[in-house]
Amino acid sequence: MKCSYCGAPVEEGRVFCLNCGEEIQWVPEYNPISSYRSNEVVQAAQSNEKEAVKINPRRQISASRAHGKPKKKRRRFWKVLLFLIFALLAGLGVKRYIDQQNYHSFDYQYEMAQTASTRGDYEEALAFARRAVSLDGGSEAARLLETDILCQMGQSEEASRILEELIAMDPSDEEAYARLVSIYEEEKDTVSLTNLVEGMTDEKIRDIYQDYMPVEVKASQPPGTYEEWTTVELYTDGSQMCSIYYTTDGTDPMTKRNLYKTGIELAEGTTTIRAVAVNEKGIAGEIKSYTYHLEIPLPDTPGITPVSGEYTAATKSQISLTVPEGCRAYYAFDEKPTQESTLYTQPVDMIAGEHTIYAIVVDENARESHPGSATYILKE
Fold it and tell me: What is the structure's pLDDT at 123?
C-alpha cells in the first residue's frame, strides 16, 4: 500500500507513514466469512495495533521527526533572511557614515578631483575641486587645481578671474602668475598681458618676467626747435629685442604699424614723432611723443659791389658778388633771377646805360636767398 499523503510505500500493519509521519487509514478487505464479527472485535484489533505501535518507540520517534522536518527548514530560512537584512542595513549605515566623513574631508575631495581630472572626467573633477575649496577657501592648491580643470574645459575666462583674485591677495604668488601669463599668451591677449606685467609690484616676480616688461622708446634728439637739418634716431635700452613702430602724422603707431628702420629726417615746420616699442612677447610699451620745430634760415642776401651809382668806362666798371661758402649765386639784369639764370663765377661787366643787376644765393639744400640788387648808370 502507498501513503495517501506523500505516495511512499507503507508496510502492511503500519499506522503512521515513515516518510511524512501522517496517519495511515487502513480499509479492511470485505470478507463475507468474517463479516459477522462484531464491532467489539474490530475495535479490539485496532486497539492492539495501537498498542503495538506504542511498544516500538523507535518507529514513533522516526515518524515524529519526519513530521517536524518542514517546520525546522522554515525557521532556518527566516533566520538567514533576517541576518541578511540586518547585514545589509548595517552595511548601508557604515557606507553612509563613510560618505559623510568623505564629504566633509578636504583631503578626500582634493584627491578625488585630481583622480577625476587625470582620467578626463572634468565635470566630476570640477565638482570635487569646488567642494574642496568650500571646505578650505584658503587653500591655494585647491584654487589652482580648480583653474587647471576650468582651462581643460575651455573656461579660461573663469580661470583667469580666479587667478587674478589670487594675485590680488598675494602679489608674490608665482604659481598664479605662471598660469595667468600662460592663459594670456595662449589667447594672444596682449592687452591683458601688458596690464598684468605693468602691475607687477613684487621685485622677484618682475625679475622672473623681465623679458615681458614693456620697453620705452627713446629719441636721439630732444624735442625742440632746430635751425639745421636734423635726423632723429629711435632706439630702446636694455637687452630685449624690440620692434619700433612710429608715425609723424599724429596717428596711433600701434594701429598704423609703420616699422622703424632708419633715422627720421625732420621736415621744415613742426613734426611730432609718436613711437612705441613692442618686445618679443608682443607686449607694447607706452607710446612716446617727441615734437620738433625746424626753421632753416634762408641764405644771406648776396653782397653786390660797387654800390649803385653813375660810372664811366674809365672808372671801375665790373660788378662783383659776395657768395657764402657752400653756396652758389645766380644773376640777371633788369629781372629777378632764378636757379635757371646765369651762374656767377667771376666779376661781371657793367652794361652801357642804366641797368639794374639782381642776384640770389642758393645754399646746398637749394634754398634761395632774398634777391639783392644794384642800379648802375654807365656813361661812355
Answer: 94
Decide: pTM greater than 0.85: no
Give the CA-trace dihedral at 122, 124, 127, 133, to 10 degrees: -70
pLDDT tens digits for range 8-22: 787 776 766 777 767
Give the relative orientation of helices 122-135 and 106-118 as an angle to the nearest 10 degrees.
160
State the pLDDT at residue 46: 53
The Cβ of residue 303 has, within 10 Å, a number of other Cβ atoms equal to 15
| Among 84-88, 142-146, 206-210, the least confident range | 84-88
CB count within 10 Å of CB 224 equals: 10
Q: Is the dihedral of CA 43, 48, 53, 55 positive or negative?
A: positive
Cα(258)–Cα(250) distance, rounded to whole angstroms?
A: 12
Which run of H or of E encompasses 276?
strand 269-279
Distance (Å, rounded) from C-alpha 66 to C-alpha 22?
9
The two beta strands, 372-379 and 309-312, are parallel
The separation between the first and the last C-alpha atoms of the chain, rounded to the nearest angstrom, is 190
Neighbours of 260 (CB within 10 A): 19
At 30 the pLDDT is 45
Which percentage of the chain shows pLDDT scores above 70? Answer: 85
- DSSP code of residue 259: B
**pLDDT(79) > 60:** yes
β-pair type (348-349, 318-322): antiparallel
Q: Angle at which helices 174-186 and 140-152 pack, to 10 degrees? A: 10
Quick one: CA torsion of 219, 224, 225, 230, rounded to 10 degrees?
0
Strand partners, 219: 234
What's the confidence (pLDDT) of residue 42?
43
* DSSP-based three-state secondary structure for 167: helix
| Cα–Cα distance for residue pair 206/246, rounded to 1 Å | 27
User: How many residues belong to the chain?
Assistant: 380
CA R_g for the chain: 61
C-alpha cell at 356: 639794374
Cα dihedral sign, 321-326-331-335: negative
Reported as type and span, the H/E element at residue 181 is helix 174-186
Rounded CA separation 125/145 (Å): 9
Q: What is the DSSP letter of 342?
A: E
